[in-house]
């Protein structure tokens, strides 16, 4: 049995890029108590380096927390999906060294939290795969 029960807080659609004249990347503070934070898309624009400053600050201020990031449909604005994916993977690699692997970008992969909890992310494609009653999580592979 794990020492601490995993707790999750899910946050989405922060749109820190707005308003465009004064984005909220530096002023917005997340107030959370869970030991796992899932940023479920539309947090900010990946072309703006202040998004990554926000993520670094969040990791620094919450040292006992893992942060999972799932790409939304707004992160790639002003760039391509492939570039957005690459920028988040690059940040994940940088964060691995700086923050001990507490940042995980999830896209077409899974993260096993413990023997009972797995986070599964298809990266905007799961809805295309789902076909109704014949679809089961056990049969889904990436």
Automatic annotation (TrEMBL):
List the SUPFAM superfamilies hit by this protein, alphabetically: Metallo-dependent phosphatases
Select a single GO molecular function from the record's annotations and give it. hydrolase activity
Domain of life of the organism in this record?
Eukaryota
Pfam families for this protein? Metallophos
- Record domain Calcineurin-like phosphoesterase: where: 10-121
What name does this protein carry? Calcineurin-like phosphoesterase domain-containing protein
